[in-house]
Amino acid sequence: MSSYLESLTVERGGFRIKVPQSWWEFDIRPQSRDDNIRALLNDRIRRHPELAPHRGQFTAFLRKAAQEAWDSGALYCGCMAETFGGEVPVTASVTVSLVGARDSRGEPLPNDPATITSQLSEKQAGREGDAWRKVKTVEIPGTGTAARTYGIEDVKVPGDERTVRAVLMQTYVPVPEQPGKVALIAGSSQVLDLADSFFDMFDAITSTFRFVG
Questions:
Q1: How far apart are CA 193 and CA 185, in angstroms?
Q2: Integer CA distances (angstroms), 112 to 116, 128, 178, in order
Q3: Which fold has domain 2-211?
Q4: pLDDT confidence of residue 66
Q5: What local confidence, expressed as pLDDT, does residue 158 receive?
Q6: Side-chain-side CA neighbours of residue 94 (13 Å)
Q7: How many Å apart are CA 9 and CA 46, to the nearest integer?
Q8: Which residues contact 171 (CB under 8 A, 6 or more apart)?
Q9: Confidence class of residue 2 from pLDDT cuts 50, 70 and 90?
């Protein structure tokens, strides 16, 4: 667990973010991701042989996360896949994308957090186990105010009609001097029983986000 507590700084064009050192980070391009994932798994299992029984589960999760990140246009995808001594791996992912929207006249829509939160809707769970969503603004040290949604949501699978229920936190950070553009930091996991722990972890990771350049 010591390596889990240590952080790794990842930098891409225009931003940087820190994730736990034990996370998986790889090229998500379709032409190279399978080979990249295979090499990462071989190296990790060579150093931690106890992970060998979970190779198939890790491979399936990492490939799925990479494909969804690529399909959504993400610039960065980091994945958590840990066993913590259990039989079923605990998995999660964080992606960073640059997104923007325009009105019917082609003008950029406002990207200030107050406007974004006013356009996002909360959802109450009708009964225990139902999906729900909360909306608020947060302060990211050194970056500023951002809009955020978090909850248990039914997320559409890219390129499919199905949905999956997931722990989801999305933070919308205005991009400086680029009207209408935001950096969308999305953390998700299908391990619903650990929702509160994942909210804390996604918040901690998002708090390290900085624009650079």
A1: 22
A2: 6, 34, 11
A3: Protein Transport Mog1p; Chain A (3.40.1000)
A4: 93
A5: 67
A6: 25
A7: 24
A8: 138, 140, 146, 147, 148, 184, 185, 186, 206, 209
A9: very low
pLDDT score, position 25: 85
Q: Sign of the C-alpha dihedral, residues 201, 203, 207, 210?
A: positive
Q: What is the pLDDT of residues 106-139, one digit of tens each?
A: 777 788 999 999 999 999 998 888 999 999 999 9
Name the β-bridge partners of 165.
Answer: 154
Give the pLDDT of residue 159. Answer: 67
The answer to whether the CB of 14 falls within 8 A of the CB of 96 is no
Q: Are 202 and 94 in contact (CB under 8 A)?
A: yes
Contacts of 204 (CB under 8 A, 6+ apart): none
What residues does each domain of the chain span? 2-211
The contacts of residue 203 (CB under 8 Å, 6+ apart) are 138, 169
Sheet of strand 7-12, all strands in order from the earlier edge strand to the far edge: 7-12, 15-20, 210-211
Cα 130-65-81 angle, rounded to 5 deg: 85
190 exposed, middle or buried (CB, 10 Å; 0-12, 13-18, 19+)? middle
Q: Which two tokens stand for residue 117?
A: 């939160």
Token pair 């995808």 is found at: 77
User: In terms of Cα–Cα distance, which of 38, 57, 73, 77 is closest to 159?
Assistant: 73
Dist CA 152 CA 122 (whole Å): 11
